[in-house]
């Protein structure tokens, strides 16, 4: 018998098709699955556990669709640089020294940040992915994980990376009670020779997995692609058959209108990494145009080394306001749409729209609670507006994944925060800089 829990007297922001907000609402779940969404019932005697949320906001957990959690170990190590210099001179030399221990503690630091700021599902692309998967499993989080493959190496090393990615998929896809799923991830068109990308696509087909790749992040990348292959990145990846698989693109900053049409026709998903794109001076993605064409644009943080935190509430607010400013259009990315980017479209981005992204019966009980008894949530007449424009990650008091609390009343239940902070500092000190 599965445990039956009901959260009562909440302001339920469902993020469903009707953008329904239920005052004095309740959400019941059995095991990991939501079984009731509606007004708080008079009779809750059928539930094993009844938690009175006293008017707090109850939302679907946020979904972070692009990042590199191990890189939190490099937070603040290299700021104020453009992407290529940041990668080549700063990140890659330190990452070359990373062992699985570095990735383990970098991952745990990230998991703490995400749990504390209301992310319940994240996408990750990195190396030493067994450590990431083990930490996700132990923490109770949900993740779509990929062994990132950079092809700027010998053919032998490329094949070893591909072998590693396939083994990782065999070991971890649909594990941790389905909380861990996998994708195949060529790092980017400028770091992977075409033949390597084709091989990865072939493996993704064999394993029936989606593709996750960085694309068109900088102007330099687009120019380099034209110089090397005679076409821009979208046509290049289309020619290599990438978009014949379900695909999640990270960034997609530099796109023409025609390229947006191509991505829309293939139902390609996009992760918008607004803070990282601004900090690395990469540019501003044409999000309103993509959304207008029906592209599912979700939110990603990228890593703490280019962000410099994993608090998705910052992406949520910035996505809602930045595009208004740059397009001189106050209705660009309205609050409801921004919230969908952090929830519903995130579920599309991880290819699990039927299970995640909104509070609806039959979906997973991935839920977060925000303390509504704070000045910045009042007057209390427009909860969605408050969540998008006034809230911040520190408002999150409870985080529930698959029906299990991973944070309750601000206390982490699955991760030893003090130990993680100690180990992360120790691992960083061991790196040669
Ligand atoms: C081995 S896959 C992960 C690889 O990606 C690098 N990375 C981190 N952030 C970005 C970004 O914004 N664009 C491109 N590549 C990025 C990271 O340093 C890892 O080497
Ligand atoms: Zn990235």
From TrEMBL:
Cofactor(s) of this protein: Zn(2+)
Entry EC number(s): 3.5.4.28, 3.5.4.31
Record bears the keyword Zinc: yes
Entry binding sites for Zn(2+): 66, 68, 214, 302
UniProt xrefs under InterPro entries: Amidohydro-rel, Deaminase_MtaD/DadD, Metal-dep_hydrolase_composite, Metal_Hydrolase, MTA/SAH_deaminase
The organism's place on the tree of life at top rank: Bacteria
CDD domains with a match to the protein in the record: ATZ_TRZ_like
Amino-acid positions noted as binding substrate in the UniProt annotation, renumbered to this chain: 95, 147, 158, 187, 217, 302
Keyword Zinc in record: yes
Boundaries of every Amidohydrolase-related domain copy: 57-406
Reaction(s) the record says it catalyses: S-adenosyl-L-homocysteine + H2O + H(+) = S-inosyl-L-homocysteine + NH4(+); S-methyl-5'-thioadenosine + H2O + H(+) = S-methyl-5'-thioinosine + NH4(+)
Cofactor mode of binding and number, as noted: Binds 1 zinc ion per subunit.
Enzyme class, first EC level, given as a word: hydrolase
Matching PANTHER family: AMIDOHYDROLASE-RELATED DOMAIN-CONTAINING PROTEIN, AMINOHYDROLASE SSNA-RELATED
Designated name of the protein: 5-methylthioadenosine/S-adenosylhomocysteine deaminase
Organism taxonomic ancestry: Bacteria, Bacillati, Bacillota, Bacilli, Bacillales
Gene (UniProt): mtaD
């Amino acid at each position: 018998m599965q445990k039956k829990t009901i959260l009562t007297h909440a302001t339920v922001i469902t993020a469903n098709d009707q953008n329904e907000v239920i005052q004095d609402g309740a959400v019941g779940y059995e095991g990991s699955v939501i079984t009731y969404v509606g007004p708080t019932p008079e009779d809750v005697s059928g539930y094993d556990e009844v938690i009175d949320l006293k008017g707090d906001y109850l939302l679907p957990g946020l979904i972070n669709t692009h990042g590199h959690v191990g890189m939190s170990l490099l937070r603040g190590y290299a700021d104020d640089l453009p992407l290529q210099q940041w990668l080549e001179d700063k990140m890659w030399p330190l990452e070359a020294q990373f062992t699985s221990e570095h990735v383990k503690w970098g991952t745990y630091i990230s998991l703490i940040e995400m749990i504390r700021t209301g992310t319940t599902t994240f996408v990750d692309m990195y190396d030493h992915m067994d450590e990431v998967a083990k930490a996700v499993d132990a923490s109770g989080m949900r993740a779509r994980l990929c062994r990132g493959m950079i092809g700027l190496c010998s053919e032998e090393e490329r094949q070893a990376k591909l072998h590693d990615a396939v083994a990782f998929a065999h070991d971890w896809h649909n594990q941790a009670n389905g909380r861990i799923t996998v994708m195949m991830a060529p790092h980017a068109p400028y770091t992977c020779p075409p033949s390597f990308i084709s091989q990865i696509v072939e493996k993704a087909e064999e394993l029936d997995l989606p593709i996750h790749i960085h694309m068109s992040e900088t102007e330099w990348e687009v120019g380099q692609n034209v110089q090397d292959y005679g076409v821009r990145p979208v046509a290049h990846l289309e020619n290599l058959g990438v978009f014949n698989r379900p695909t999640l693109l990270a960034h997609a900053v530099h796109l023409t209108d025609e390229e947006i049409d191509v991505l829309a026709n293939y139902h390609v998903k996009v992760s918008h990494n607004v803070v990282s794109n601004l900090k690395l001076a990469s540019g501003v993605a044409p999000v309103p145009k993509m959304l207008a064409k029906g592209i599912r644009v979700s939110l990603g943080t990228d890593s703490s080394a280019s962000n410099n935190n994993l608090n998705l509430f910052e992406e949520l607010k910035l996505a809602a306001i930045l595009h208004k400013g740059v397009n001189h259009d106050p209705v660009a990315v309205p609050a409801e749409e921004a919230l969908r980017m952090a929830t519903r479209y995130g579920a599309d981005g991880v290819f699990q729209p039927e299970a995640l992204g909104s509070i609806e019966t039959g979906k997973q009980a991935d839920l977060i609670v925000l303390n509504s008894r704070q000045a910045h949530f009042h007057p209390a007449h427009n909860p969605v507006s408050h969540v998008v424009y006034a809230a911040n990650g520190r408002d999150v008091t409870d985080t529930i994944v698959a029906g299990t609390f991973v944070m309750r009343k601000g206390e982490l239940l699955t991760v030893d925060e003090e130990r993680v902070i100690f180990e992360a500092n120790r691992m960083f000190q061991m790196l040669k800089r």
